Amino acid sequence: MLKPMTKLKNSLGFSAVEVLLILIVIGILGFTGWFVYHSQKVVNTDHASTKTNSQPVSTIKLNKTYLDQTGNFTVKYPSSWKAQTSNSTQGGADYPITSTTLTSPVGTILNLKSDWGGFGGGPCIPAATDAPFKAGNKCVSWEYLSSETLPIDNVYYASDNGPDASGEITFSYKPSTIVLTTMHYSDPEGTSKYIIGIKSSNPADPVVLNKPITGINRPETFFDVQGPSGKSYPLIYAYASGSDASFLKSKDASTIDSILKTMVVSLSN
After folding, report:
1. Please, which pLDDT band fits residue 170 given cuts at 50, 70 and 90?
2. How many domains does the chain have?
3. Rg of the chain, C-alpha, whole Å
4. Is 244 contained in some domain?
5. pTM, entire model
């Protein structure tokens, strides 16, 4: 006579029911492990996709080179931008001036100039009623909004050492810090310009951010160029401007930022 199934034992001493329960438990654990692994893989894939999409790849191709032989510098720019250059010897044959514009397809102009002469102007003492960026001021106003140091490390500036034993003022030449800046500028009538360009930031004339100033300044940016022994070269102007703050976030401003970061200055000493 057969015994009930619940009493059947296998060689290890487990009944058929117990074996079936063990198999069910193993199946549940296996499915749970697979589900967790698959879910985690999907989450990680989504995170990786999000990270990649949050870092857009630049499509700007700087495939042409502008060489300024007067200013001893080069920049790279897109072939879709048009270059136009003019030369002048108004300061004498030994002191030529080169002015170039790089114009985008929509008309934004990047100005590049090398000029042996000074930048002109003089101090302007603000009136008692002057306030930064107010219409009707006596003097212009400006404020630096951002600054980024560029890898131009072969340009020097004259550092005033004060009088020597004989009372003569002496100078030493130290590496100049060249920066890419954005700036808000306003003329005395209150007309604003938002500028992106290159200038120097040295102890005598530092770039200080978010500090409105009234006085004298031109709506252009430039930097003085000297060699390590004090040999002088033309001033280099590099700037573009727009009439409102949105210009600084425009596609052309982003391209100009990329162009100016390619500047290389080559000096003979």
Report:
1. confident
2. 2
3. 34
4. yes
5. 0.75
